[in-house]
Write a structure and sequence with these properties.
single chain
Length: about 120
Amino acid sequence: MPRYTKPRKTWQYSNEFKVKAVQLSLIDGIKVQEVAATLDIHPFMLSRWRKEYREGKIVADRRKKLTEVTSKQEKEISRVKKLEAENKKLRQEVDLLKKWQRFLAEEHQQGIDSSRSSDEN
């Protein structure tokens, strides 16, 4: 087994980033998994940050204005949600069209089979 001489790269996130992530995850109707995926972090890490935020270990810097960034990120998340819903609808439509195409092919095949059997008689 190879021996690692360098430690693994671990990411260090600022308190501001953690607070923004937690605040985004606390918005009604938004899931932790969605925020984590948007910010490219693991959902477990965000859950841990939420716990630390509740316990007061992560504190927001009151001097900085967080509402602008939060509203921008909130808009981005809502846009992603709309696109995901549209994607889901389009996938359902494609599946329905594929089923319809299979149905028509089976009907056509049954018509050919029945005409062959009547020709043989």
